[in-house]
Structures are given as C-alpha cells and as structure tokens.
Design goal:
The protein is of the alpha/beta class. It has a single domain, classed as Rossmann fold, CATH 3.40.50.450. 46% of the residues lie in helices and 13% in strands. The strands form 2 sheets. Strands 6-5-4-3-7-8-9 form a 7-stranded parallel beta sheet, sandwiched between helices. The N terminus is likely disordered.
Length: 243
C-alpha cells in the first residue's frame, strides 16, 4: 500500500493515484459562482413576474426569413399576442426572431431570454424585454416558470432539449395543465413515428404519454389549446387556494 504525492493512501499500491475531490477542495471561484447563479435567478424572477400569461416559443436559429416556418411563427405569435399572451423566446434569430416579431405585430409583450455564447448572434431587434443569461439551467427555469404553454417549431438539439424537458415535467406532474404544441407536421412526423415504434413499442413510455403533446399546423388550433390550458390552470389554482 503506497501513499500518493497528495498524501492519500492508495490501496492498489500506485504512488500517483489521483485524489478524490472533497467539499474542502472547492476553489474560491466556485463558491462565488453560486452568487452569480443566484443573481441570474433573482433578475429573471424580478423581470418576468409581471408578464403572465405567457407562451414560450422555440425553434431553430438557422431558419431563414423566407422559410414557411418563419412565416408560421410570426402568424402564431401574432395570434397569441392578440389573445393577450406575452411571447417568450430565446431572443436569437430564426424562429425566435419570427415569434418576437409576431408578438409586436399582435400588440403583445415580446420577451427574449438570451444566452451568452461565443458563437451565437446578438439578440434580435424585436424584443421589448431582454434578460441575459450565462447559465442554461437558470434560463430554462424562466422558460417554464412564466409560461402556460410551449409551442415548438422545427429546430436542432436546443429545441429538442426544451421540448423533451417540458414533456418530462408534464409526464411527472411537476407542471399541470401545460400544453406542449408541436408545429411542422412534415418535420416532426418522423420523430413521432420513432417514439411510437421504439419508445412505446419497447415499453419505455405508457400509451397515454403519447397524448402529452399535440401536433398541429393551425394557428387558431394553437390559440384554442393555449386558452384552454390557461383556463384550466387558473381554475386549478383557484381551487387550490380555496382548499
């Protein structure tokens, strides 16, 4: 049995065994990071508290202005804004820009939750309220906490990340009365078939889990689903307050 250069006994007899990091080894900069994270939560809570009801809209940053998905995102956000819903996006280009533009055209509040990344574009110019984040997890809390629904357009890994996190929260009843609406039937149908064939077929999800999201390309159907979800949430919160 040997002792490593860090003074830790190595039962295998290796003198260069790495020492497991303990709580006492946390660097001073790590503890200060906690306050930076806390600051992002505080700023998010203080800024976004007045915006409800709101809908978070997700989709690819690479979607071009002349894309039908871009035009559809403008249409959907505009329709929701006219119904009185604020629109929350990631604040970037593509679908996010389209949704913020639609919010403005519909006379609603246009919110961008921007993540600071070295390779991303600046926030789009259609945002009324901008909150900047360094930490993805703090930003994701704001998306779900202040929204009554998610509307998910075609996108990449980040879009899928947000969609499946919401579905997990609904599935586990961490959030209730929360519609998750997928727009772009031609884009999503392959994934939905895979979910049915592989996840459901292999018993990884229950049959009722397929009903956790709705696939539609109709802006008015989106508005109806969001309205109904919001109404159920208000009724549920009122019942909870009275009990």
């Amino acid at each position: 049995m040997a002792t490593s250069r860090d003074g830790v006994v190595d039962p295998e007899g290796h003198d260069d065994a790495p020492r497991a990091r303990s709580m006492q080894d946390v660097a001073p900069k790590d503890t200060w990071t906690v306050f930076k994270i806390m600051g992002e939560f505080v700023e998010g809570f203080e800024t976004l508290r007045p915006i409800e009801p709101a809908v978070s809209i997700f989709g690819g940053s690479r979607v071009r202005v002349n894309s039908r998905y871009y035009r559809k995102a403008v249409q959907v956000a505009q329709a929701l804004a006219r119904e009185g819903f604020s629109i929350i996006t990631g604040g970037g280009p593509g679908i996010m820009e389209a949704a913020n533009l639609g919010a403005r055209r519909g006379g609603g509040r246009s919110i961008g939750l921007n993540i600071r990344l070295p390779f991303e574009h600046r926030p789009n110019r259609h945002i009324d309220t901008l909150v900047n984040f360094n930490y993805f997890f703090a930003r994701k809390v704001m998306f779900i906490k202040y929204a009554c629904a998610y509307v998910v357009f075609p996108g990449g890994y980040g879009t899928l990340d947000e969609a499946f996190e919401a579905l997990t929260l609904v599935q586990t009843h961490k959030v209730d009365n929360f519609p998750v609406i997928m727009i772009g039937s031609d884009f999503w149908k392959g994934m939905i078939r895979w979910i049915e064939r592989e996840m459901l077929g292999r018993g990884m999800i229950a049959k009722e889990d397929q009903r956790l999201f709705t696939l539609t390309d109709d802006a008015q159907e989106v508005c109806r689903l969001v309205r109904e979800g919001w109404r159920r949430r208000v009724q549920s919160n009122g019942a909870s307050a009275r009990s």
